[in-house]
Every structure is written in structure tokens, then in C-alpha cells.
Amino acid sequence: MSLRPTFKHDLAREITRWRTDGMIDEAQAQAICARYGLDYHNLHTLQHRTLGYHVLLVLGYLFIGLALITLIGANWDSIPRGLRMGALVVLTASTQMLGLHYFRSGRREAAARLFFLGNLFFGASIILIAQIYHLGEQMADGVFWWALGGLPFALLLPTRLLGLQTLALALIWFFMEVSDGFYPALFPVLLVGVAYVLVRGKSSSLLFLGTVVATVLHIEYSLAVLWSANGRPELRAEHFLIASSLGLLAYSASLWMVQHASARVQAYGHDLARWSLSAFLLLLLILSFESPWLRLLLADFPHAASMAIFMAICCTGAAALSWRYQHRQRIAALIAGNGFLLVVALGMDFTAAPWLRIADNFALLAVGIGLLLHGVRSGISRHFFLGIGVILLTGMLRYFNLIGDYVGGAVLFIVFAGVMLGAAKYWRHHHKGGDAA
Questions:
Q1: pTM of the model as a whole
Q2: CA distance 42 to 48
Q3: Measured between alpha carbons, how far is 72 from 65 in angstroms, rounded to an integer?
């Protein structure tokens, strides 16, 4: 069966992901590869080869745009104003029209690259026209119109390239608006457009995770605006607990998504689960030191009521998403932990910081051991090695923080060696037929 290179790349990536997540075993992966004429042992090579080709094409178009922009900019002052305007309009319109021609003729990938190039020309036109008429005071508005002007092409041809371009411009505008002291009220409009690309276009982990992060940023900043007393939003201790609650909701959503009938939703769910787990481990690692607990315990919470309501909404949503699935006990434990953070922040004083730090270190070790055992039992080597990494990192940090001498270091490394050798023996005992990575 003859397959297009782009389809081969996407299929190789999905097979690798299914294999890593334990959704299929090695024999099933080889059978799928044989069905579509792929070499199972060279899946990564195929992915990098096809991806490299597209990256080079995109970079080529990018540098074409930069070259033309640089050439125009170098001779900008010597070009009559009317000619400047006309050249910018013609350059942008002709590029987009050629992209539309390719789109109508079915050459979607070439059309996407031309739309990408045309959007670059459109942004350059906005910047250069602003220079002509001295409109540089509100450059954030120009970036917004740039993002909004490129959005229809992403909706017409929902590809990862155009979706990432729209998301990047939306985030640039978001941070420019925030730094200027304005609220980016239309940011959700751009996010909805990007979400449309996620639904209608090919799956993209980077675009999906970027959209999730952008949504969290907008929620956090919206709350900062709501809680500002003097019209100047600033990060407060409340945002830490809000981020924890949003992470809980994201993780619960990821577990719901992996049970969905759609393969695309399942893939996004696995991506979200991996990064939510990483964020959770990072949170535990941060709280394994005493200073974060002191800052939390000594902080004022002038908006405790609205913060608690928002946290309750997130916890309720997480519970609802997990109610019918086997992971509800895990989500219940995380909801309890989130509630414990709220109790600590509002009801304890700074003298509890050392004890909370000790409890967090034990929790970190327990999570590491749980990941290690889950990795062995399920055959997912990523969880196995992540659990080992958590245990080793926790032990290393506590050693440098508490002991720090040569004898203690030698003892620590002997303990680590025992953990590694014991884990290897445990893995071999459960997977005598080979690694189920």
C-alpha cells in the first residue's frame, strides 16, 4: 500500500505513542506497520525524516518573508508613500490569492505554507504602515489585528502550521496587552479559533498543550483583574491555589478524555495526563522545601471567599468527570489534597511549615514508589523510570539540604545503587519476555 509521506509520519508517530502508553504490545505494533508498509524498527527515523522535510520547507518560506521584509525596510525611506502602501497590499494579497488557488486545486500543504507566508507579509504590512503614519503608540493593537487577520485562513484550512501561528500571535498580543496594563478581552475569540483547528485539523500535541496553557493564563489574569483593588492586577497567593485547582481539573479531564471513543480525543487525553502529572510532581517538588510553605502560611488572602468558590467549582468538575470511571479514587485523593492546601493556607500559622515540608517529602516518595510499581505492573516504562527519577531526585535534594558530607554521600549512593538494582530485578521478574516500553 502506497502512503503519502505526511500520512506515514503521522501513523509512525501514533504507533510510537500507542506503544509507549501501553495501548498496544510489540506484536500488534509490528502487525500495524506490516499492514501499511512501515518498518517497525525505524519508526523514529521515518518520523524525523518527514518532519525534517516539512520543517525545512516552513523555514524556507519564513526566510523568504524575512528577506523581502528586510529588503523593503532597507529602502523604506526612499520609496514614495503611495508606492509603499501599494506594494505592501499587492504583496500580501497576491501571496494569499496564490494560496487560495492552491487550496482550490487540492494542494492543501502548499496552500498552508503560502497562507503562513501571506500572514507574515500581513503582519509586516501592519508594522510598516504604522511607521508611515506614526501609529507606534499602541503596537499591541497591530499584533491583535495581525492575529485576527490570519485567523480566517486557519479556519479555512485548519492545519497545525496555521494554528500554531495564530496561537503564537495571540499569546504575543496577550502579553503585550498585559504589560501595557490592559485587559485582553478578545483573547478567547482567538482561542476558540485555535480550538477549531484542533478539532478539524490533524492532531497536534504542541498546539493542544499550548491552547491549554493559554487558557489557564487567561483565567489567572482574569481573576487578577477581578481581585485588583487599585486597577493594577498583580499575582497573589490566591493564584497558587487557583493553579493547583486548575491542574486538578485538567488531570481529571485527561482521564475522561482517554476513555473517549474518538482516537483524537484519546491522544489529547494522554498528552494532557502526561503534562498534568509532570506539573503535579513539580508542585510536590517545590513544596518539599520549607520556604514555599512559609510564604503560603504568612500570605494574606483578601479574596479567600471567591478563591474558595472557584476551587470548589474546579473540584466539583473534576469529581463529575471521574465519577463513572475507575480513576475516581485517585481523583478523590487529589481533591482531598487540594482541600488540605486550602485549610493550610487559611487556618494554620508559620510554625507548621517544617511539619508540612516533612509530610510533602513523604508524599513525594510515596508518589515515586507508586509510579514505579504502576510502571512495572502496566508495562509502561515511562512511569517506571519517572518513579525512579522522583525517588532519586528527592533523595539527592534532601542529602544536599540536610547532610552534605562525603560519608553521607557514599551512603546515599549505595542506597541509590540498591534501589536501581532492586528495581531492575523487579522489572525483569514481571517482564521476562523483554521490556514492554
A1: 0.75
A2: 10
A3: 11
As to burial, measured by CB atoms within 10 angstroms (0-12 exposed, 13-18 middle, 19+ buried), residue 435 is exposed
Residues 6+ away with beta carbon under 8 Å from 178: 184, 221, 233
Inform me whether the pLDDT recorded for 356 exceeds 80.
yes
Q: Degrees (nearest 5) of the Cα angle 272, 274, 277?
A: 105
Residue 39 CA: distances (Å) to CA of 8, 32, 115, 435: 11, 10, 34, 19
In whole angstroms, what is the distance from residue 405 CA to residue 210 CA?
43
- Give the domain ranges of the chain: 1-72, 75-235, 236-348
Residue 188: Cβ within 10 Å count: 15
In the structure, what pLDDT confidence band is assigned to residue 77 with cuts at 50, 70 and 90?
Answer: low
For the record, the C-alpha cell of 121 comes out as 507579509
The residue count for the chain: 437
Confidence label for 125 from pLDDT (cuts 50, 70 and 90): confident
272 vs 266: CA distance, rounded Å: 10
Q: Give me 167's grid cell.
A: 496561537
Q: Distance (Å, rounded) from C-alpha 189 to C-alpha 200?
A: 17
How far from 379 is each of 23, 243, 272, 429, CA to CA, in Å? 10, 31, 20, 12
